[in-house]
Amino acid sequence: MATVDPWTAVAVSTGLQLVGSLFGRDTRQDEQNNINLKFEQDNEAYSFDRAVEWSTYYHTLENQYVADLNTQAQNAYKEQLAFNQWQDKENMRLYSYAKEAEAYNASVESYYEQLDFNDIAEELTIADTERAYQDKLLSIGFQNEELLTKYYEGGKELALETRGLTQGLKEARKSSKLQIKEVGVNREMDLLNDALDKAGLRDGMAATKADAAFKVQGMRSELLQKEGQIRNMGQVGRSAEKAMQAVLANHGNAQMALYNSVANAESKYSLDLQKLAGALKNKTEMSQLQLDNITNALVNAETQIGMSEEGTGLKFSSLQAGTESGQRQLKQSLISAGEQNLADRNKIGMDRYQADVQASSRLKSRPSAPPQQKLPLLLPDTVYQKPMKPIDKPLPIRGLNNVHHTPFKDIIMSTASQVTGAALGDVQW
Predict the structure, then answer these.
(1) Consecutive sets of 10 residues in the chain, 429 residues long: mean pLDDT of each?
(2) Which residue in 264, 76, 290, 289 sits closest to 179, CA to CA?
(3) Rounded to two decimals, what is the model's pTM?
(4) Are 260 and 215 in contact (CB under 8 A)?
(5) Residue 87 resides in a domain
(6) 241 falls within a domain
(7) Other C-beta atoms lying within 10 Å of the C-beta of residue 397
(8) Is 303 exposed, middle or buried (0-12, 13-18, 19+ CB in 10 A)?
(9) Enclosing domain of residue 243
(10) Which residues contact 333 (CB under 8 A, 6 or more apart)?
(11) How many domains does the chain have?
């Protein structure tokens, strides 16, 4: 297709119009002008629609290009984000493995430290056990020494007690003899005092009787004197008789009182003699009782001392038996202490084994690195369907002029129109 300058086509059209104007106004020309105008408008609309179609096409291409860039940017962001997440997980995997390895190494170090501690604890416990065992042996030795000391001291005390009992028996017998001698002396003193008391009573009674006889003699002399006085007074008759009776009565009363006093003295004398006899009998019985008590006390002392000596023998036998029993107990305690020491040593060994097992149970297993996760997949490329290019449309067609004109003018106009149409039709914008 030939290329025609648009300005050339315009010039041709303008020339045709000028040519048409030379021949005057023509309806055919007017119609042709309208047709040309319509044709020009159709061409402009055609050109505008084609420009819009192509503009839309390129704008769609541009939008697809921008969308592709955005999609690529988003995919790159998502891929980087996925990679970062994978990297974080990988770092956490390596961090966890490092921490597990650190914990394992720490548990291994703690395990060997615990084993060292168990060694020290076992040695200290064994030392304490041995010290306790030695203390037990020393205690048993001291107890045995104490038993022997008590045995010898108890034997000495019992020997002294035996000698004391023997000496006490001698002293009891000697004291008994002295007490019997004292009872005899007291008996002699009682007999002597009884004889003296009886002699005193007899002398007192004799003195009482002698005093009474003397008083009777004085009363008789007084009576004779009073009788003489009455007679000398010269009284006769009843007065003299009454005076004499009164004197006789007083004399009789006084003599009776004196006789009663002597009788009472004799009665008291007899009673005192009975009291002395009773007292002497009582003292005799008391002396005999004292002798019996002394004899019984001596017998009881001998019996008690004999029983004490027997008890001393039993005490010595008991002391000896207790000492032997204590030694047997100490011997058994010694055996038991040895067995306990062996049991303690075995328990220490078991405790050490248990402590080692517990330390081993706290030992963490050797860590192993977990498998690495696969790298994240790349996002697939987005496929866009390319827009369809605008399809070529048929060009506008100039309308036909149905208005008739002179042949010459028609020929000219027709030719001009064809030339112009051909020129415009071949134009590429």
Answers:
(1) 48 54 69 89 92 93 91 91 92 90 90 90 91 90 87 80 78 81 80 80 76 71 68 62 68 74 78 81 81 82 77 79 86 89 91 89 83 85 82 84 63 57 48
(2) 290
(3) 0.39
(4) no
(5) no
(6) yes
(7) 10
(8) exposed
(9) 126-361
(10) 136, 140
(11) 1
Buried b (16+ CB within 10 A) or exposed e, 112-131: eebeeebeeebeebeeebee
d(CA 8, CA 88): 74
Distances (CA, A) of 212 to 130, 177, 203, 264, 373: 114, 52, 14, 12, 165
Element containing residue 27 per DSSP (H, E): helix 27-232
**CATH assignment at residue 294:** 1.10.287
Q: How far apart are the first and last CA of the chain?
A: 12
Q: Which pair of structure tokens corresponds to residue 143?
A: 């107890």
Q: Is 334 part of a structural domain of the chain?
A: yes
pLDDT at 55: 93
pLDDT of residue 419: 54
Contacts of 108 (CB under 8 A, 6+ apart): 363
Query: Does some domain include residue 291?
Result: yes
- Look at residue 426 in the predicted model and tell me its pLDDT: 47
Token pair belonging to 379: 């996002």
- The alpha carbon of residue 199 and the mean position of all alpha carbons in its chain are separated, in whole angstroms, by 101
Cα 355 to Cα 113: distance, rounded to the nearest angstrom: 12
